[in-house]
Specification:
The protein is α/β, with parallel strands linked by helices. About 40% of the residues lie in helices and about 15% in strands.
Length: about 400
């Protein structure tokens, strides 16, 4: 077993930082072989199907482990992807070969489609690898990504009405006011209309916004997320009302992510800033979004967008195209931890990132022994090794409905 605290750590640190810098500087470079830098080996990949996520734990022969998380959509399906298709490309590898490992998985399973389950599953593995590398080196992840541009980040409170079916106007107002009471300076009410209910005849968006706006006036800024439910014509019509009558500055995902020309047209017609990108799962898809939809802000999600490696590449696209990132984030534990590390390292982050009411996620947060420091609508970037959150495996196991493990061949 390798003791990570030995004279060889200088070699580990040099090799790890060089690899991280190369990946960030060359976002579309093909995978290439590197000599072993750390003399460490991944010995186990373990998955935990949770009611609301798939957690992944990756361990090396040094005994150091890292944790990752996939999107919450289909955790049991993602476990099958990870264990049956991907684990064999991870176990036995050097944990510092993150780029080659992720490329190997992505291109080997590319026929499943580059988005959705493939990118989500890769994200959980990748986040665990970055947590692991940073813990081996005893630094926060953002140090491996080039350092910190900030030590805290503003967050907005986000909640959804599920096309008005899960919340009355009174409940929507109460939710927004609670965020303001907890110090949030910005609130987003998601309409969650979706493409399957395009331009609903009984559209209550303006009704809800009117009620919430009056309740928040002078306390917090309000914006909305249509969740891809409008055509360009309808988005422009509603957007003008939101802009002119309520002073709204941000308009998220007004049109389908499958129709970039519609999103571009909305942006050309309105003075509001258009936010898009939560359904773009790879740097290649984000590049096409920038080229054809031309949103003002990008909102990729680390547990959908191929993890920290994918997001680091998206960060480069953000910078060179002058498209700031408002990170999408709906999960309170490892996803938030990874998002905060990225928020520290992106020069183009902001003006804020997505968040939620921690009161609504007590069970999920209980799997962590440490959590984040919230104050007046801002969150401090963790400075402890790895992602900056400590996961209690016993509590994870107690909430898990399935646990599977892939071990290195001892022979």
């Amino acid at each position: 077993m390798i003791d990570p605290i030995t004279p060889s750590r200088r070699t580990v640190l040099t090799g790890g930082l060089a690899l991280a810098g190369a990946l960030a500087a060359a976002p579309f470079a093909p995978a290439f072989a590197l000599p072993t830098q750390s003399d460490l080996c991944i010995t186990e990949l373990k998955t935990f199907v949770m009611p609301d996520a798939l957690y992944i734990k990756i361990t090396t022969d040094s005994g150091v482990s890292g944790w990752g998380e996939t999107d919450a959509g289909r955790p049991a399906l993602f476990e099958t992807f990870v264990q049956d298709l991907m684990a064999r490309r991870v176990v036995g590898r050097d944990p510092f070969d993150t780029g080659p490992i992720i490329d190997d998985i992505f291109y080997a399973e590319h026929d499943f489609g580059p988005g959705g389950a493939l990118a989500n599953s890769i994200a959980g593995i990748d986040i665990a690898l970055w947590d692991l590398k940073a813990r081996i080196l005893e630094v926060p992840v953002h140090r491996l990504l080039g350092g910190a541009y900030r030590d805290k980040v503003a967050v907005y409170g986000s909640y959804g009405t599920r096309r008005w079916s899960s919340m009355t106007p009174d409940q929507a107002v109460a939710k927004a006011v609670k965020f303001a009471d907890n110090g949030f300076k910005t609130v987003k009410c998601r309409m969650q209309i979706r493409e399957s209910h395009l331009n609903p005849p009984e559209d209550r968006t303006v009704e809800y916004i009117d009620r919430i706006h009056r309740a928040l006036r002078g306390r917090a800024e309000l914006f909305t997320d249509i969740n891809n439910g409008y055509s360009a014509n309808r988005a422009i019509q509603v957007g003008r009302i939101l802009q002119e009558e309520y002073g709204m500055r941000y308009f998220e995902e007004p049109c389908s992510d499958q129709n970039h020309s519609e999103t571009r047209r909305v942006g050309e017609e309105l003075d509001m800033a258009i936010i898009a990108g939560e359904k773009e799962y790879t740097p290649f898809q984000i590049e096409e979004l920038i080229r054809y939809a031309d949103p003002d802000y990008l909102n990729p999600d680390v547990i959908k967008g191929m993890g920290i490696t994918g997001m680091a590449k998206i960060g480069v696209l953000s910078q060179v195209n002058q498209k700031p990132i408002i990170m999408h984030n709906t999960r309170p534990v490892l996803s938030t931890a990874a998002s905060l590390q990225l928020a520290a390292s992106f020069p183009t982050i902001g003006p804020f990132m997505a968040d939620f009411g921690v009161d609504d996620h007590v069970e999920q947060i209980a799997v962590a022994d440490t959590y984040f420091d919230y104050d007046a609508g801002e969150v401090a970037i963790p400075q402890t090794p790895g992602l900056g959150i400590e996961i209690n495996e016993d509590r994870v196991s107690a909430r898990s409905t399935s646990i599977r493990s892939t071990l290195a061949d001892e022979g």
